[in-house]
Fold:
Amino acid sequence: AQKITQTQPGMFVQEKEAVTLDCTYDTSDQSYGLFWYKQPSSGEMIFLIYQGSYDEQNATEGRYSLNFQKARKSANLVISASQLGDSAMYFCAMIDTNAGKSTFGDGTTLTVKP
Amino acid sequence: DAGVIQSPRHEVTEMGQEVTLRCKPISGHNSLFWYRQTMMRGLELLIYFNNNVPIDDSGMPEDRFSAKMPNASFSTLKIQPSEPRDSAVYFCASSFGLLQEQYFGPGTRLTVT
Structure:
């Protein structure tokens, strides 16, 4: 069975600084996908970034990058140059490429301080 | 291009009533997912479809829950009869293939009194 662990219930970061949100996963599959989503207080779920298990390079999307360490089963999200609008809940998720079943972590609440 | 559309956005109903939530996926997407989000249980995958066919409904909590996808542009999640513990935000998401990023709708906030 898949499992996603986000050990940081809450994080604070100063505006313009970088922050890393941790995510570890557990799976017996060799082929899988990892995602990060942002959920602001308004409630919508916003896709941020995707990493496939066979991708050799870390995924990047603007200020977001995914620090993928396959051997350690970690997929940390790095947000560079934090902005006040980055304050939100962030979810790490995995998808099982065999059956297509997705599993989400419990989320990390990020607060950006001015 | 329109994103995933869900209706209604808010639903308040009394215990025992039937509730139907609706979802229109992004045009061209062939995978559709229904999730439930609560403070206690987080985000749970209820059921997902690929090419209109249900693939895995093991997340559906009880027989009171059912979901259909009669065509590529429409899906429903039905709760009959509803109970107060069904109160949650229900999200629909779609993707171009099961393994691709999912795009979420705005959610339906369901309150069962």
The two ends of chain A are 41 Å apart (CA to CA). The interface with chain B takes residues 33, 35, 37, 43-47, 50, 52, 91, 95, 97, 99-107 of chain A (CB under 8 Å). Chain A has a mean pLDDT of 94.
